[in-house]
Amino acid sequence: MDDKIKPHQSQTAGLGTRVVWGGEQVQHPYNATQTPIVVSAAYGYHDIDEWYDVALGKEPGFIYSRMSNPTVSVLEDKLCELESAESAVAFSTGMAAISGVLHTFLSYGQRVVSTRDSYGGTNKIFEEFLPRMGVEVALCDTLDTESIEHEIAKGCNVLYLETPTNPTLKVLDIRRLVAAAKRVGALVIADNTFATPLNQNPLALGVDVVVHSATKFLSGHGDVLGGVVCGSEHLMSQVRHYREINGASLDPFSAYLIIRGIKTLALRLRQQQVSAQALAEYLCTEPLVESVNYPGLPQHRGHTIARSQMRGFGAIVSFVLVGGMDTVTRLLPLLKYAHRAGNLGAVETIYGPARTTSHVENTLEEREALGISEGLVRVSVGIEDTADLLADLKQAFELVRSKQNHSSLHAGNTERFTEVGT
Ligand SMILES: *Cc1c(COP(=O)(O)O)cnc(C)c1O
Fold first, then answer.
1. Angle of helix 94-105 relative to helix 233-246, nearest 10 degrees?
2. What molecular function terms (GO) are annotated for this protein (predicted)?
3. Residue 216 a catalytic site member
4. Which residues contact residue 301 at a Cβ distance below 8 angstroms, ignoring those fewer than 6 apart?
5. Helix or strand or coil: residue 189?
6. Distance in Å, CA 316 to ligand 1 centroid
């Protein structure tokens, strides 16, 4: 077994058990069964020697909450158990985690290879911020594995992956790209937000560092922001040091909400995936839909790779509407069980076009260059009953179609009248 994978107490338990008990075997004050929200900024000591030992890391304990906090620690331990990681570091947001990791492991004159359709914010770090600090960035066509391998072979310090991608659900072959990175000694970082640790464990596939936006499926209720990074203690001590100094630490109340959310992750995802598969299959039959992206569809380009590296296909489906933004504007308001919002991974179903969700940071030209059409809608499937979600989507499409027929009939009539008139 790899040295970055530490067998934990509950490692032999299933993931549905680990989401509940992982990191929770701590004796809390008053014998509380739930993790307390410890809001103290600092921790006091009578014994000055003990204070010194804790400060120097010789003894376990806490000094100041920007560095570590008892509530945040439980969350970090839980993530270690879910990703089978030695260590984890929590951040105030997913972007803080991604930015923190990239800044920890890249410096002036170095080179990073990644793909064009990573999360919009991540893409901005690659395009705008890293070049400014003298890091060379090579972004490859996500589906062209050979070109990614080619760029890696030219030499790089970091390979950054995200799979499945947001919002087009492209699947990258993690094992194959890790092998290419190892040949040039590059560190591999993977964003596992879409898959969640229940569906995919990148560390077990050879990745060095895993990042999560805990805002999404981990917390699961759309009411908190957070990010977590996992990996070997050797690597995480560097990430922790970066966070300590740069200060994007997670606050204890948010940590508590994320801990609470994770406990139902397995239950939520089970229901969400059943509905995601059903919605994807229905969308394939809908005449107003040009194409459907869901790795669980056998015809999906990444289906076989997804099967080999994922335990489930996730709860995000995206589709392209015939008629582009015009149809998007008509369809989305007709949905009853849907937030129209720029979030994902919550218990409620959320619909959103890429231009106001994952790629709100990008211009129309940038989205076009990324192959993200204006008619693309992303669905984050919630935990509602599958039948209700299907019926809701069907009635919305029927209404759009009937209005379309009505208006074209109307347009036809006008034409005929005009003919008669002239
Ligand atoms: C949302 C998201 C992020 C950013 O996370 P925040 O918590 O919003 O900062 C990063 N990667 C992916 C894949 C995401 O979906």
1. 110
2. carbon-sulfur lyase activity; cystathionine gamma-synthase activity; pyridoxal phosphate binding
3. yes
4. 143, 170, 171
5. strand
6. 14
Among the atoms of ligand 1, which is closest to the Cα of residue 96?
Answer: 9
Does position 416 have pLDDT exceeding 60, yes or no? no
Among this protein's residues, is 191 annotated catalytic? Answer: yes
* 3-state SS, residue 47: coil
CA–centroid distance, residue 384 to ligand 1 (Å) = 23
- Phi/psi for 342 (5° steps) reads -95, 50
- Residue 4: per-residue pLDDT: 38
Average pLDDT over residues 287-306: 97
pLDDT at 356: 72
| d(CA 402, ligand 1 centre) in Å | 37
The active-site residue out of 119, 242, 294, 351 is 119
Q: What is the pLDDT of residues 184-209, one digit of tens each?
A: 999 999 999 999 999 999 999 999 99
**Residue of 18, 216, 240, 378 marked active site:** 216
pLDDT at 418 > cutoff 60: no
Asked whether 197 and 228 are in contact (CB, 8 A), the reply is no
Which has more pLDDT, 104 or 6? 104
Give one DSSP letter per residue of 288-344, joined into a string: TEEEEE-TTSTTSTTHHHHHHH-SS--SEEEEEETTHHHHHHHHGGG-SS-EESS--
For domain 266-409, the CATH superfamily is Aspartate Aminotransferase, domain 1 (3.90.1150.10)
The identity of residue 304, as a single letter, is: T
pLDDT band for position 256 (50/70/90)? very high
Stated as kind and residue range, the H or E segment containing 369 is helix 364-369
Give yes or no: 119 in active site.
Answer: yes
Domain extent listing, the chain: 2-262, 266-409
- What is the DSSP code (8-state) at residue 125? I
66 has catalytic annotation: yes
Q: What is the whole-number distance in angstroms between the Cα of residue 168 and the centre of ligand 1?
A: 15
Residue 5 pLDDT > 60, yes or no? no
Least confident of 280-284, 393-397, 402-406, 409-413: 409-413
Q: Is the pLDDT of residue 409 over 70?
A: no
Candidate CATH numbers 3.40.640.10, 2.30.40.10, 3.30.70.260, 3.40.50.300; the one for domain 2-262: 3.40.640.10
Closest residue by Cα to atom 6, ligand 1, is: 94
